[in-house]
């Protein structure tokens, strides 16, 4: 569904002549296709929305790192270009949840999986990571 939205928006950008947005969307779609090939080399196979979000987050992270590097290197032209690209990528990312919302989600997961938590509290970490991967990002440190 997310991939289809990206393709639809790419077509719309082509029709309206928005070259910057079209370029970014084509790059995103190419990265998604590369991930699909890596995922299943013989046949490919489409990524689901969660896997597509992982690709989008990776692109956003790379753009943020590039912006920081270009700011340190005193390259305002490249900073501006990368910020524009980041705006386009950010349109397709869900809003990240706050720390308070994250704690509530974790408490809910623990309550829903009380039996597992009682036997092995560390097992809840895997369940939380799986369910919250698209909503929350890992801290840098």
UniProtKB/TrEMBL annotation:
Pfam families: YqeY. One of its GO terms (molecular function) is carbon-nitrogen ligase activity, with glutamine as amido-N-donor. Gene3D superfamilies: 1.10.10.410, Uncharacterised protein YqeY/AIM41 PF09424, N-terminal domain. This is Uncharacterized protein. It comes from Candidatus Roizmanbacteria bacterium GW2011_GWC2_37_13.
């Amino acid at each position: 569904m997310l991939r289809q939205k990206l393709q639809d928006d790419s077509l719309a950008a082509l029709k309206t002549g928005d070259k910057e947005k079209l370029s970014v969307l084509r790059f995103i779609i190419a990265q998604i296709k590369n991930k699909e090939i890596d995922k299943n080399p013989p046949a490919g196979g489409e990524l689901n929305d969660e896997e597509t979000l992982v690709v989008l987050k990776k692109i956003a992270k790379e753009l943020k790192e590039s912006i920081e590097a270009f700011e340190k290197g005193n390259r305002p032209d490249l900073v501006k270009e990368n910020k524009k690209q980041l705006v386009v990528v950010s349109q397709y990312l869900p809003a990240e949840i706050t720390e308070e919302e994250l704690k509530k989600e974790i408490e809910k997961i623990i309550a829903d999986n009380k039996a597992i938590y009682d036997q092995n509290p560390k097992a809840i970490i895997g369940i939380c990571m799986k369910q919250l991967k698209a909503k929350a990002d890992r801290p840098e440190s």
